[in-house]
Amino acid sequence: KMDDDDDDIPQLSSHTLAALQEFYLEQQQREGMKTSQGFNQYSIGSIEEDWQLSQFWYSDETAACLANEAVVAAGKGGRIACVSAPSVYQKLKEQDGKDFSVCILEYDRRFSIYGEEFIFYDYNHPLNLPENLLPHSFDIVIADPPYLSEECLQKTAETIKYLTKGKILLCTGAIMEEQAAKHLGVKICKFIPKHSRNLGNEFRCYVNYASGLD
Predict the structure, then answer these.
(1) What are the pLDDT digits (tens) for 33-53?
(2) For the whole model, what pTM was predicted?
(3) For tag attachment on the chain, is the N or C end more exposed, with fewer CB atoms within 10 Å?
(4) Angle 74-105-66 (CA atoms, 0-180°, nearest 5)?
């Protein structure tokens, strides 16, 4: 006798299923177009925002400005870590051949296309990092915690302090100014970062060194 339990499994309506298939097909076509056009995998938007992961990419100008700031701050042959800041990482990679190295710590595994420079990162486990990621081995850490909560900032701060030799560039909401100072000793800059889509919350940059962002 067949098991009747199968009846309890919710079935997608044929309309929903068709819409879903169409969505995936479009996505595949987009990916195919990117490949056939000699697509630059490092350009902002090459991996689309996932709002469920609280992802909002910077505008091209903001990403370029933050990337340039990081290069100057890191110095010749410097090491840069991008924590939950993939659009800055992408801009840095566009400067191919420049004298610095960079890695990306990110929860979204789509960024694993960047190979060895990608490190899976979950802010809930701030020090769950690969053994080869040595403490205080980065000249500057750029971080953009995914959520505007003190818990998220505090845990991301543990990661930042572990990685950096000293310099920190934090991007988060203006409402986090007090907590940013408390957990990382950073001060707000004059530079106003912009996103490719407008956010409801005012966004700011914070640093703990004399930067070019003022």
Answers:
(1) 444 444 455 444 445 544 444
(2) 0.76
(3) N
(4) 40
